[in-house]
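Duplicate of #3305? Posting structure anyway:
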């Protein structure tokens, strides 16, 4: 399974959520690899705490490989190479967790036929080795997205399962932007059509994930004034309404990740020690990552019940 992670804007939580999803799927027993296609901002090394890769690699990253400057992109085992001790303890039954870093000196570049062929090759090889291949794309209407749309339209990938996740924050502007990235001009559906993707197939492969969501009824808002909580509830209900109208509602939702204090302050993997021993991250956040890891691998994306819409 190829999973393409995208978002209309930067700073949506795409990379942090995708990395945690990858980690949880590996703990669940899947062999997972994470391919950093965010050419301008390859942050996965930092999130997995591989210090040497915190700004991408100075060697042969994905960007160099796609441009033909390297015959193979570098691969790194997160379990073996992370600098965080508790991540180095690979839990019993966990699968592989491999990172293909971006290049530290990378940037957006338009793909040509060679780039697309190399991308097809890479996807074919990774898909046959791993249960889940997460491709973290640059934000917005990027060259990276165009390359992926082109590659997945090729006959060689016709039988390979792939899906798209659009990450967005739970605000009016982000919901509008997520809608536009899918349905708007030069959005995913438009770009897909130009590569002759089957409209219905592409449409049914796209799901949304809401990040850093504040629950207006959650205990963490206990310090707010009743007027503030009432206002939040009203805004939340309006957002649900708007999201449903824009096809970003529960029918197309893969999951929601609550706002977590740890992620608010640092881009990282949340381990079980962070919830159980240190008690700094919320169990709800880990539950959400676990759910996303399961749902993203299910035969069909299963919409979740969201009572507010
Ligand atoms: N569930 C969350 N709760 C709080 N902060 C979050 C959450 N998810 C992500 N963040 C924070 O949001 C910021 C942007 O996340 P990042 O994954 O780098 O975004 P993107 O890849 O979309 O640019 C980071 O500081 C990250 O730690
Ligand atoms: Mg990112």
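Output from current build:
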């Amino acid at each position: 399974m190829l999973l393409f992670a995208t978002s209309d804007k930067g700073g949506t939580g795409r990379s942090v959520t995708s990395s945690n999803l990858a980690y949880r799927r590996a703990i669940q027993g899947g062999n997972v690899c994470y391919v950093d296609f965010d050419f301008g901002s390859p942050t996965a090394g930092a999130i997995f705490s591989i210090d040497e890769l915190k700004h991408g690699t100075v060697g042969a990253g994905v960007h160099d490989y796609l441009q033909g400057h390297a015959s193979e992109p570098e691969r790194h085992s997160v379990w073996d190479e992370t600098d965080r001790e508790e991540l180095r303890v690979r839990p019993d039954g966990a699968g592989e967790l491999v990172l293909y870093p971006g290049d530290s000196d990378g940037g957006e570049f338009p793909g040509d036929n060679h780039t697309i062929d190399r991308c097809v090759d890479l996807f074919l090889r990774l898909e046959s080795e791993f249960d889940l291949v997460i491709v973290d794309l640059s934000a917005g209407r990027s060259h990276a997205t165009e390359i992926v749309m082109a590659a997945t339209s090729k006959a060689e990938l016709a039988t390979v399962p792939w899906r798209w996740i659009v990450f967005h924050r739970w605000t009016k502007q982000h919901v509008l932007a997520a809608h536009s990235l899918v349905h708007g001009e030069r959005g995913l559906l438009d770009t897909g059509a130009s590569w002759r993707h089957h409209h219905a197939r592409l449409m049914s492969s796209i799901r949304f994930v809401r990040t850093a969501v504040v629950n207006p009824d959650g205990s963490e808002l206990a310090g707010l004034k009743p007027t503030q909580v009432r206002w939040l509830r009203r805004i939340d209900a309006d957002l649900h309404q708007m999201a449903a109208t824009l096809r970003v509602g529960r029918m197309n939702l893969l999951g929601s990740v609550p706002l977590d204090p740890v992620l608010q302050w640092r881009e990282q993997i949340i381990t079980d020690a962070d919830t159980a021993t240190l008690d700094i991250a919320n169990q709800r956040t880990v539950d959400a990552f676990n759910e996303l890891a399961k749902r993203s691998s299910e035969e069909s994306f299963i919409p979740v019940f969201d009572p507010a819409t």
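Confirmed duplicate; merging threads. Confidence is low (pLDDT under 50) at residues 305-309. The pocket of magnesium ion (ligand 2) is lined by residues 14-15, 38, 41, 43 (CB under 6 Å).
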